[in-house]
Task: inverse folding
């Protein structure tokens, strides 16, 4: 699985958009980008995933660059409850059910 | 509601006393796994199961056992716990790359 690089920590003001970057320059053609988050020692929670097109769901948007070497997770209106560790994971296609390799993630602190 | 349930949530035990952490999912997923989370080391996979009666080692399997007699349950067994198994444990079940995690079991071995 490709390695990802994320900033260790970020701050965001409540109500503003939180943009969390992830570099995955060694991603291969059939690998997907997944995002999970973990709120203070709770179980990680799936957020979104994508291959090459931008994706949006009720939680967030995922923007993947055209060369697929990096991506950005966007929380459009961050709330205090979005304070968490966010993990960017690159893995085989969804049809391949396998382990998730968690890095250190980005600690997002949403401030009032 | 789709969920993965682990029990117990918290456990303090003594070295060498066998214990089992239970995990149950209600989504009919074939793939289930166990992770442990330690400060500075992140989440690491212990064991996984592709289906009933099919289990395999993850990255840190030493000192653990699992079983998968039915699709919904995937217990984690520590035959002789040691202090280095003090950790936060998560069970997960997955479908097509999306994993659902339990709330965790905080285990302390003294």
Result:
């Amino acid at each position: 699985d490709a390695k990802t690089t994320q900033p260790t920590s970020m701050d965001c003001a409540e109500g503003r958009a939180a943009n969390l970057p992830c570099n995955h320059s060694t991603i291969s053609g059939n690998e997907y980008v997944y995002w999970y988050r973990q709120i203070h020692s709770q179980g990680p929670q799936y957020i979104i995933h994508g291959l090459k097109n931008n994706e949006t769901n009720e939680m967030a948007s995922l923007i993947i660059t055209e060369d697929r070497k990096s991506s950005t997770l966007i929380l459009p209106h961050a709330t205090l409850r979005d304070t968490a560790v966010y993990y960017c994971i690159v893995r085989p296609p969804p049809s391949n059910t396998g382990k998730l390799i968690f890095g250190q993630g980005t600690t997002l602190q949403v401030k009032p | 509601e789709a969920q993965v349930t682990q029990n117990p949530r918290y456990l303090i035990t003594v070295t060498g006393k066998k214990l089992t952490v239970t995990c149950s999912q209600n989504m009919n997923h074939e793939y289930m796994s166990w992770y442990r989370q330690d400060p500075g080391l992140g989440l690491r996979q212990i064991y996984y199961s592709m289906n009933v009666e099919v289990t395999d080692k993850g990255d840190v399997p030493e000192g653990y056992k699992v079983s998968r007699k039915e699709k919904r349950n995937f217990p984690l067994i520590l035959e002789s716990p040691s202090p280095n198994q003090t950790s936060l444990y998560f069970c997960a079940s997955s479908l097509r790359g999306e994993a659902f995690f339990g709330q965790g079991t905080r285990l302390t071995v003294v």
Summary: The two ends of chain A are 37 Å apart (CA to CA). Strands of chain A lie at 9-13, 18-23, 32-38, 45-50, 55-56, 61-64, 70-75, 84-91, 106-111.
